[in-house]
Design brief:
Blueprint: H1 3-13, E1 14-16, E2 28-37, E3 56-63, E4 69-71, E5 73-75, H2 77-80, H3 92-109, E6 116-120, H4 126-133, E7 137-142, H5 145-153, E8 158-160, H6 165-175, E9 178-184, H7 193-203, E10 204-215, H8 217-222, E11 235-236, H9 239-248, E12 251-259, E13 265-272, H10 281-292, H11 298-324, E14 329-332, H12 337-345, E15 355-356, E16 374-375, H13 378-383, E17 387-390, H14 396-402, H15 404-408, E18 412-415, E19 421-422
Parallel strand pairs: 6-7, 6-9, 7-8, 9-10, 14-15, 14-17, 15-16, 17-18
Antiparallel strand pairs: 1-5, 2-3, 3-4, 4-11, 10-13, 12-13, 18-19
Helix pairs in contact: 3-4, 6-7
Bound molecules: zinc ion.
Length: 423
Amino acid sequence: MDAGRQVKAMSAQHHRRKTCRLCGGTELSLVLSLAPTPPANAFVPAAELGREQARFPLDVFFCETCAHVQLLDVVDPRVLFEHYVYVSGTSPVFVQHFEAYAAFVMERFSPKPGGLVLDIGSNDGTLLSFFAKAGMTVLGVDPAQEIAAAATARGIETITGFFGADMACEITASRGKAEIITANNVFAHIDDLAGVVDGVRGLLSPEGVFVFEVSYLVDVFEHTLFDTIYHEHLDYHSVKPLIRFFAARGMELVEAIRVGSHGGSLRGIAQLKGGPRPVGESVAQAVAEEERLGLDKAATFRRFAADIDALKAELGGLLRSLKAEGKRIAGFGAPAKATTLMYHFGIGPDLVDFIVDDSPLKQGLFTPGMHVPVLSSAAIAEKKPDYLVILAWNFAPAIIDKNKAFRDAGGKFIIPIPKVEVV
Ligand SMILES: [Zn+2]
């Protein structure tokens, strides 16, 4: 595809916002420009290898008005999820997390028995099932038709669609106000966040609470999780901009608690403005920590970008020199974030022969854009690479542990982040 046509095709599939998603500010500074990538989950079958995949800008902006860190390039969800390899969220760890989550909310806020709990982005209804067990009336909302239908079939009534002010009106009219509204890992995915919070304000009872979990910018920054930056994740939330955002929409952030899920998340709790709860110390503590790290300044993220580029140079140099020595290199793990890592670090088919992944859904497919084949881990014993670059580097200790035979045969692992290590 020639350059002109490619740009034209892209413009129909994505748009660039001109304002901050949280405060509407227009003074937005580019702080981190990652290599453009196709959608991070767009793994392709062999039959489609001839079709070039469109790449979209992956530029991170800092709002000089409220300090919110975000992508302004919004890829059409239809493009984003076209090749989506759905991995069910119902792993035992996930279920346990949601059980503890529901228990925390019930204990902390003692909602009216039988009151309504609404979960935005309710997926298969796992979280709501624990609220139902605790005697609450539950209702899910999820845009994925099949998942919503499956949840309803197992007794967790789920509306198919996008939550916003209109849906909030309909639910209020048919069922009354909600005591609890939850939203987990959806706050980073929605371009119209203001619309969602307007819906929450419309549906929440005067004593009600809104509880949400999102990946926390502090963790992204402290643990160099730059590869969690991809088009599905529009926002990288911190507490300071959220306080202002909720206040502008008639709500109040009353708690900001750090939790361990997804490599480090923030559990925020908000109520209607003037609600019954005082603002907890956790909010001021989180803001103080964010300021200590300099997350309210654009310069901090420019330094972060420089650190990432230093890693890129070091890893690229290592892989190229190994290749020049005739070593054979493969990758381990093909999570969505590997797409960002591979593109930004330039790890393509010229450096890695194949990638192994334990998910049968990805085996036999090819990585987004670069089209490196994804195989089962049996390929390690068959093809005997000399080095395995751990692309799912947050699981490095477990992966190294599990692949003793590879190590015993003289194989070495390369960990790319937070520093380049050969093990
Ligand atoms: Zn802003």
